[in-house]
Design brief:
Blueprint (H helix, E strand, L loop, with lengths): L26 E3 L1 H5 L10 E2 L25 H7 L1 H5 L1 H7 L1
Amino acid sequence: MNPDPADLRQPLLLAPDNFTPRSRTPWAGTEIHARYKKLVSKEEWIGESWEISCDPAFPSRVAGSGPFSGKTLQQVISEHPARAISPELAKKYG
């Protein structure tokens, strides 16, 4: 049984162990500067940080004891796309 989509009216708390391991940190080098020149200094290398993720290898999971507890963020979005990401985005990205 799927949880009531009305439960998505409140923010979902994600598990705090969501971060990628240091050995897997995706360093961008100078690519971010090339794409977003005005935002960063080109003298520095920049690393990415994934605070939330739908990547199957590093999925964010919902924390707590609510109806979505333990599900991945991707599962919640797949089960209730219009409520999780908006009707417009659900229609655009399926």
